[in-house]
UniProtKB/TrEMBL annotation:
Highest rank taxon of the organism: Eukaryota
Record flagged with keyword tRNA-binding: no
Protein name as annotated: TILB protein
Organism: Centropus unirufus
Record bears the keyword Zinc-finger: no
Keywords, alphabetical: Leucine-rich repeat, Repeat
SUPFAM superfamilies for this protein: L domain-like
C-alpha cells in the first residue's frame, strides 16, 4: 500500500520568488534556473490540484520587467552545470534560458541529463562543455557555428556519424573521452580526416600518424574469436 509522506503537501512551499533585487542574469556565474514550482496546468495533469495556492495575477508589464531583469541576452560567460533537472517544468525553463543566450561565448552544461539540444542555437559560443550528459549523437548538439573548444566527455556517442557538421566551424579542440566511439578502429585518424581544422583531440595534439588517410582495407578485415 502506498502512503504519502507527511510532508508531501509542503513539497512546493520551499520555493521563493524574490521580486525586488538589483542582480541581473548576466551578473551570475552559477545560477539555479528552476521555476518556482510546476505550473497550474502541470499540477492538474499530475492530479495534484490540492497543492495549488492562490497566485497573484501577473500583468504583462510585470512579466516584461522580469524578463529584462534576467537579461540573459547580454550574458557572455555562464555555468549552468549540475542543475538537477528532475522535472519537466525545470527542463522547459532551462531550455527557455538557453534560447536567450544569443551572446554567450563560454558555456558549461555539465551533468544535466541532457539528451537533445538540437533546437538551440548559440551563435557566438566559442567554448562549450557538455560533459556527463546523455547525448548519443553529434546531431543532438546545439547549433554552434563559432565553436573552438568542445568537450563531450562521458556521454554515450556511439559513432562519429554527424561529426562532419563541424567541418566548417573554427573547432580546434575536441574531447570525446569515455564515449563508445573512442574505441572505433582508427578513431583519431577518422576524426582528424573529418575535421581538417582540428588541432587537439582528447587533450593530445595532432600527430603525424593522425594525418594518414584511413586504410580502406580495415573495413574488410575479419577477426575470429574462439
Amino acid at each position: 500500500v502506498f502512503f504519502k509522506l507527511p510532508s508531501d503537501s509542503f513539497k512546493y512551499l520551499g520555493w521563493c520568488d524574490i521580486e525586488e533585487h538589483d542582480v541581473r542574469g548576466n551578473q551570475l556565474r552559477c545560477p539555479r534556473v528552476r521555476e518556482a514550482g510546476p505550473s497550474e496546468q502541470e499540477l492538474f495533469f499530475r492530479g495534484e490540484e490540492h497543492t495549488l495556492k492562490k497566485r497573484k495575477q501577473v500583468t504583462d508589464t510585470e512579466k516584461w520587467q522580469k524578463k529584462l531583469q534576467e537579461n540573459w541576452e547580454n550574458c557572455a560567460e555562464l555555468n549552468l552545470s549540475f542543475q538537477d533537472l528532475g522535472d519537466l517544468y525545470q527542463m522547459e525553463n532551462f531550455k527557455r534560458i538557453l534560447q536567450r543566450l544569443i551572446r554567450v561565448e563560454k558555456l558549461w552544461l555539465m551533468d544535466n541529463s541532457l539528451t537533445d539540444l538540437s533546437a538551440i542555437r548559440l551563435p557566438r559560443c566559442r567554448e562549450l562543455n557538455v560533459n556527463k550528459n546523455y547525448f548519443t549523437s553529434f546531431r543532438q548538439l546545439p547549433k554552434i557555428p563559432q565553436i573552438q573548444h568542445l568537450s563531450l566527455a562521458e556521454n554515450n556517442i556511439m559513432t562519429l556519424s554527424g561529426i562532419s557538421g563541424f567541418r566548417h566551424t573554427p573547432l580546434e579542440s575536441l574531447i570525446l573521452k569515455r564515449n563508445p566511439c573512442e574505441f572505433q578502429e582508427r578513431y583519431r585518424q577518422l576524426v582528424f580526416s573529418s575535421l581538417p581544422n582540428l588541432k587537439m583531440l582528447d587533450g593530445i595534439p595532432k600527430l603525424p600518424q593522425d594525418c594518414s588517410p584511413p586504410d580502406k582495407r580495415v573495413f574488410f578485415r575479419v577477426c575470429t574469436i574462439l
